[in-house]
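Reading is simple: each integer encodes one residue's backbone shape. The lines below illustrate:
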Amino acid sequence: MWPNGGCKSHSLGVGGLAGGTALALLALFLGAGGSIPAQTLQWISRVVPEAAGTIRARPGGEPIQHRYQGWDDTDFSRFPGYGYQDQRTGPPVHAPDLRDKIDGDVLRGEQVWRRAACVNCHILPGDGRWAGNVGPSLAAYGELAKDPLRTFAIIYDARAFFPQSIMPPWGTAGLLSAREIGDLTAYLHSLRSTPSRSDLRDNPELRPAPTPYFGDSSDPANNPALLLAEKAEEAWSDAAASGRSCAGCHGQDIDAVMKGVAAGYPKFSKRYSRVVSLEDFLSAHAPESAGMDMPVGSAANLNMAMRIKISSRDHTVAMDLKDPNLLAALKRGEQTFYRRVGQRNHACADCHTEATVGGKWLGGRYVARSTIETGLTRTYPAWRTSFDEAWSLRKRMQWCMIPHGTNMLSADAVEYAELEAYMTTFDIGRKMQAPGLKD
């Protein structure tokens, strides 16, 4: 139920749960260190098909993961993911058997450099604003590095030399073949360009940070998400087939009855015995109380969440840190944030903590401005200018699974809910600003 009262929730049985049985959910929580009263197991997964994390097969039998249109559909099932029941770990550190000679091709190696997007972390002259500076400049690598065998081994698995490296284990994980690593090694050792003293972009330490500015996120002329949120005002008043509506229970004035409500999410719901975000709650509350279809990932869910969050703009984020259930969930969310998964052996923390990125950025994206310490949640849902779409934080999480090289979970998965809750703790005391603007 809404914190301010409202409709009486209609109890549902646990039979016929979509996306998994009650027993599976119970096992998931018990494995994560939680406990659930059996009589309150009433969570039903309601998400759009693109956000469900379903594994399908192409006509030829090749498995793929069904994702949003235009997204990579590679099936990463063989690599560990964020599911609580997935206890697999990343590939063990492997130092390759070094050869006496690296027979690489420089031109092919340059193609590997581009295809592997090494520029996301390393600067080369001429790579412009999209070069990252998390790693060292490689402009004069051929002059500084004398041992191609060592270069080959570092690319193959940097962890053998630098245990805390966030560089993907290119060879160990099968991201690059031995031949491709050999070609890349040859290319790097061919580089002789001395960084320009006059162009600060060639210096990782002095390179000026990208300064994207999208304008006032509260101005509809700058933020199309605000126009989408207006559509939710009609949905608020429209009666469903059941004859019920949001306004019928809560009142017509959204801003009056929803004032500050969104600032309390995510929260632990006693009704569902799990952490829920506002979007999660809407997906369950709408059909249970008004017979309205509002699955996570749908426009109806996103627009309504944005409209309710607008009613909480300038309210400070607050969470009930005295709730032991929430505290246990936050601990699990923290473990997820720092857990390395996928083919690239990455964690959220590798890109989104100040301690890791040190004020630097990846591929033109100024990571230090979107670290967990500076707050990541209070501006979502947000309009993504690079996609011309409004995204929830859950969709953004699912998108991050692709560069991780791991399959995404269902958008309403409890693992994502607890991860979002942990991230939200860093926004406590800060003002809600949704919907925001992102690149």
User: Anything to note?
Assistant: The CA atoms of residues 394 and 411 lie 6 Å apart. The radius of gyration is 24 Å. The chain has two domains: 13-75+209-439, 106-202.
